[in-house]
Amino acid sequence: MTTATRVAEIAKRSLSGDKRLMISSDLTRVLEEVYRAGAHRVAADDIDWPQELHAAVFRALNMQYITRREIDGSVRFSLTQAGYRAIDAEVPWGRILRQRMRDFVRAATGR
User: Fold this and answer.
1) Is the dihedral of CA 78, 84, 85, 86 positive or negative?
2) What superkingdom heads the lineage (predicted)?
């Protein structure tokens, strides 16, 4: 398979929406674990990631599939919209509305 053919195949998958073929199985496992644990502000202690998935966690953070925040000394993970799309999960509209309202309030208060 030539490089041009391979690039065309990847582009075709991307356009067809077949995201699972685009990401590794370890990365998929990480995203699905966050999703199963609640998907939004999940405490790191509530997710049991084996040692072999730690590299995939960092990759998910770098690719902005998940976010990491420290809240009151506790590390919390959340799926981003890209993370939901990567595992073909339904994005909760309530979460999107809350996020938009928070952004609106920040803009209105000038923070």
Assistant:
1) positive
2) Bacteria
The alpha carbon torsion through 45, 48, 53, 56 (nearest 10 deg) reads -50
User: Residue 51 maps to which CATH number?
Assistant: 1.10.10.10
Pick from 49, 62, 52: nearest CA to 23: 62
Domains of the chain: total: 1
Edge-first strand order for the sheet with 66-71 is 42-43, 74-79, 66-71
pLDDT, tens digit (0-9, with 9 covering 90-100), for 18-67:
544 457 889 999 999 999 888 888 899 999 888 999 999 999 999 999 99
Question: Where in the sequence is the domain holding 48, given as residue range(s)?
Answer: 21-109
For residue 61, being part of any structural domain is answered with yes
